[in-house]
Design goal:
single chain; three-stranded antiparallel β-sheet; 3 domains; Immunoglobulin-like; mainly beta; four-stranded mixed β-sheet; rod-shaped; about 10% helix
Length: about 250
């Protein structure tokens, strides 16, 4: 390994480490700095190993070895490095996301990505543009969790995927935060957001009706007993009083 390194100190004092693709095993001799690479049967085709050299002061540098693993290759033969240009990953456009204020949604990111290496090796990050309406967190399973705060509105999220060699791609998508649905008042028959005399007059006209009457409207059956009677009147009176009582 020392033959591939340069430093302002003795390269023999460098500490080496390696991060191989799946299916490869690598060991580095602590003194001789000779790397031994082994491949299992699942490792056929193009594979990568990221080697890192660290000096005594903690400064480090990383480079990537690309190699092909062939079936039936001799165990004492080092695979031939392949000069191949790494291309940045690419991302499909994400559709707009809608959620309720104080709600959350999760998105699996891998289906939106393509790369010349397994997309499971991509490193993801996300940022929200110029607002605190929401937060975005990405876990180790490459799943993004979007959490909305309590305020409705719209926000733009920028999603970035970075490969093991530092090449990256970004895409933006919109998040639309809807207000929490408002529960209708049970005695607000005209839907104006108040329980007032207009609702009282509408209620009085329905007293005595049942499902057998042509003007039957179950909205006035506050007790849900199939008829509009004195019990519904008392329930309406309680709702009217509660809504109009001064704080």
């Amino acid at each position: 390994m020392d033959d591939y390194a340069q430093d302002d100190e003795v390269v023999g004092n460098l500490r080496w480490s390696a991060l191989p693709d799946a299916g490869l095993q690598i060991s580095i001799h602590g003194t001789l700095h000779i790397a031994t690479i082994r491949a299992d049967s699942s490792a056929e085709g193009l594979r990568r190993i990221a080697f890192t050299a660290t000096d005594a002061q903690g400064a480090s540098a990383t480079d990537t070895l690309r190699l092909y693993v062939h079936e039936g290759a001799s165990t004492d033969t080092l695979p031939v490095p392949v000069e191949e240009t790494n291309t940045p990953p690419s991302l499909d456009a994400l559709p707009p996301v809608e959620l309720i204020a104080d709600g959350q949604i999760t998105i699996a990111l891998e289906p939106y990505a393509t790369d010349d290496a397994p997309v499971s090796q991509l490193i993801w990050s996300a940022s929200v543009v110029d607002t605190d309406l929401l937060t975005v967190a990405i876990d180790s399973s490459q799943t993004a969790t979007i959490r909305a705060r309590g305020t409705p509105g719209q926000a733009q999220v920028i999603l970035t995927a970075t490969d093991r060699e530092g090449l990256q791609v970004s895409t933006a998508f919109q998040v639309i935060i809807q207000a929490q649905p408002v529960e209708p008042l049970p005695a607000d028959f005209d839907g104006n957001g108040k329980i007032d005399f207009e609702d009282f007059f509408l209620f009085v006209e329905s007293i005595g009706s049942t499902p057998l009457h042509t003007d039957w409207d179950p909205e006035f059956d506050l007790s849900y007993d199939g008829q509009i009677n004195i019990e519904d009147f008392f329930m309406f009176a309680d709702a009217f009083d509660a809504f109009n009582r001064p704080d």
